Amino acid sequence: MPYQSTQFNKYYNDFCAKKNATMHLNHKPGEIMQVDWAGDTTGIIDTDTGELLKVYVFVATLPFSGYSYVEGFYSMDQECWTTAHVNAYKYFGGATKMIQCDNLKTGVVKHGKDEVELNRSYQELAEHYNTAVVPARVRSPRDKAFVEGTVGVISTFIIAALRNRQFLSLPELNEAIWNKLFEFNHKPFQKKEGSRASMFEEEKPFLMQLPAEPYHELQSDMTMLLFIIQ
C-alpha cells in the first residue's frame, strides 16, 4: 500500500530511531580536523612535593586518514586549548578547511538553534588559519564520532601504556606520548592495507598552507595596545 509523504517520513524516522540507524560519512581529505580532550588523564610527579600533578590530554585527528596528534597539558584553559591547535597544525604541516569541536567554553560561547558564537580567541585563531569552526550539535555525539572513537583508542594505546611509568616533567611525559603516537600512526590497519601514516601521505597535499607565523593568542591584544598608544 503506498504512503503519503508525511506518513512515509514519520514511519522512516520511527524506523531509524528504533534501529539506531546512521549514515556512513565519507570524509574528504584535508577537510576537517576534529579535536577534543581525552576523558582519561595522566600525570607527573612534582619533584618538590612528591605530589602527582594531573595532566590533561588533547587529541586532534583527521577523519579521512585517522592520522592524529596528541599532547599533554597542565590545564584545559584557553591558553592550552589554543596552543594545542597551533601545535596540531604544525604537526600535520597544514591546516584543514574546518575544525570540529565540542561545545567547550574555551571554544564556544553560545550554540543556539540558529546561531553559533565562538569566543574571541578561538574566532581569531580560525581566521588566522583561514578555517571555519563547526561545533558538534548539542546532544549529537555522532557529529564527533570519529574523534571520540580515536580518543578511546588513544586512551588505551598511549595513556594506559604509560600508566605504570613515572615522569618528572611535562616535556618528559610528552616525549613519551609522542613516541607512542608515532607507533599509533604507523601501526598497520587490521582490516585493510596501509596505516594512518600512509593514508596521511595521500591526505597531506589537500591541506591548506600554514601562515608564515603561527597564531599567538596575545597578538591581537598587542596590536590594539599599539594602536591606542599611537
- Given this structure, which CATH class is correct? Alpha Beta
Residue windows where pLDDT falls under 50 for at least 5 positions: 3-13, 15-24, 219-230
SSE order: HEEEEHEEEHEHHHH
Q: What fraction strand?
A: 15-25%
* CATH superfamily annotation: Ribonuclease H-like superfamily/Ribonuclease H
Shape: globular
Account of the protein in words:
- The chain is globular.
- It has helices at residues 5-19, 78-92, 120-128, 145-159, 170-186, 196-203, 219-229; strands spanning 32-37, 42-45, 52-61, 68-73, 98-101, 108-111, 116-118, 132-135.
- A hairpin with a 4-residue loop joins β6 and β7.
- Helices cover 39% and strands 18% of the residues.
- The chain starts with a helix and ends with a helix.
- It is α/β, with parallel strands linked by helices and 230 residues long.
- The strands form two sheets. Strands 1, 2, 3, 4, 5 and 8 form a six-stranded mixed β-sheet that branches. A two-stranded antiparallel sheet has the order 6-7.
- Residues 3-13, 15-24 and 219-230 have low confidence and may be disordered.
- It has a single domain, classed as Ribonuclease H-like superfamily/Ribonuclease H (Nucleotidyltransferase, domain 5).
Features:
single chain; 230 residues; alpha/beta; Nucleotidyltransferase, domain 5; 6-stranded mixed β-sheet; 7 helices; 8 strands; 39% helix; globular; disordered N terminus
